[in-house]
Amino acid sequence: MSMRSNDAPETGAFFGRDRTWHSPALTPGYKTSVLRAPQRALLSLDGTLSETTGPVFGHGMIGELDNDLIHNFAKPGESAIGERIVVHGRVLDERGRPVRGALLEFWQANAGGRYRHKKETYLAALDPNFGGCGRTICDDEGHYAFRTVRPGAYPWPNGVNDWRPAHIHFSVFGHGFAQRLITQMYFEGDPMIWKCPIVNTIPDKAAIEQLIALLDWNNTIPMDARAYRFDIVLRGRRSTLFENRLEGN
Ligand SMILES: [Fe+2]
Question: Which residues belong to any copy of the Intradiol ring-cleavage dioxygenases domain (predicted)?
Answer without folding.
Answer: 87-115
